[in-house]
Amino acid sequence: MRPDITAHQAARTMLDAFGSVGATRFDLTITDRKGEKVRFRRGLSLEDLRGAMPAELDRAAERGHNVIVRPHGPAVVFIQLDDLSGESLERVEGVAFLGLRTSPGNHQAWVAVSPADAGEDLARRLRKGSGADPSASGATRVAGSFNLKAKHAPDFPRVEITHSTPGLMARRENLLQLGLLPEEPRAPARKAAHTRTLPGARKWPSYQRCIEGAPATHDNTGPDISRADFTWCLIALDWGWGVDETADRLMGESGKARQNGLRYALRTVQRAAAARRG
User: Fold this and answer.
1) Is 86 in the same domain as 46?
2) Is 159 a member of any domain?
3) Which of 71-85, 163-177, 210-224 is the least confident region?
4) Omega within 30 of 0 (cis) for the link into 205
5) Considering 52, 64, 100, 226, which has the largest number of Cβ atoms within 10 A of its Cβ?
């Protein structure tokens, strides 16, 4: 079988796995080797994206581009478990409908839960319990596409599917039984009013300082914008701003938030709010 056909089939298998648990729309982002956005299409249907994907993969391979999708569904919450070791991936395989190898030794798993099961804290606790990156963006490289990070040059790996279990929805009780939702001690309740009554509390934190203080990305190509956004949201909430207004402001401060949309901004603020609650 020709390599390009294998890549096409892998991409279709991945998209169908997302569709099997409730994904109905996808955002498609094409980036260059530096991670800069080349093209973006919002809200593609599963059918349309399946049809377009073979040409997208072929064009990306020719031009040295990355192919990235973000799934959406009205009746499902997707939890991305990123930067997993092979051992960590095996631990979550029974509750993840999809597993990927994004590069040698680096894996990713996708867990689907109902909105009722997700609650406010499940995603954060699951990432912690599985050892995943706490600031995963919710977007992923497409199976069959090349991972064109500079650190992998010149032999760029293809993203591979390690397992696919179509239709698998995880339940909170299953995650608890597997020890993937660690209990966390509650911090003493904060005094309600500190943040709104302190002098100067109504100003916004400096986004540039958060960028300057952010750790580098895994491939050392620049600051980790997800971490910077998360830190900025933590500070904004501590200074007395609400969730919705912080998300709106983040859209104006962060290029990544503008690229990924208000849902990304809200998720980032909500994770920060959960972290503050302890």
Assistant:
1) yes
2) yes
3) 210-224
4) no
5) 100
Distance between CA 51 and CA 56 in Å, rounded? 10
Query: Which residues are bridge partners to 84 per DSSP?
Result: 107
Residues forming beta bridges with residue 172, ordered by sequence position: none
Together in a domain, 7 and 136: yes
State whether 66 and 151 are in the same domain: yes
Point out the domain boundary residue: 177, 212, 240: 177
168 in the same domain as 233 = no
Is 114 within 8 Å of 175 (Cβ atoms)? no
Same domain, yes or no: 15 and 109 = yes
Number of H helices, E strands in the chain: 12, 8
Domains in the chain, number:
2
Report the predicted TM-score, pTM, of the whole model to 2 decimal places. 0.68
Q: What is the DSSP letter of 31?
A: E
In the block, tokens 């995880």 appear at 170
Q: What percent of the chain is predicted at pLDDT more than 90? A: 62
Strand partners, 100: 108, 161
Number of neighbouring beta carbons within 10 Å of residue 172: 18
Per-residue pLDDT tens digits for 158-169 = 999 999 999 999
Structure tokens at 81: 């478990």
pLDDT per residue as tens digits for the range 118-160: 876 888 899 999 999 887 888 999 999 999 988 888 889 999 9
Half-sphere exposure of 84 (CA within 13 A, CB side): 26
Q: Which residue has the higher pLDDT, 218 or 70?
A: 70
Residue 109 counted as domain residue: yes
Instruction: Tell me whether residue 70 is in a domain.
Output: yes
Domain of residue 134, residue span: 3-177
* Spatial separation of the C-alpha atoms in residues 145 and 132, rounded to whole Å: 22
Q: List Cα–Cα distances, 193 to 182, 196, 239, 241, 246, in angstroms.
A: 30, 6, 10, 12, 18
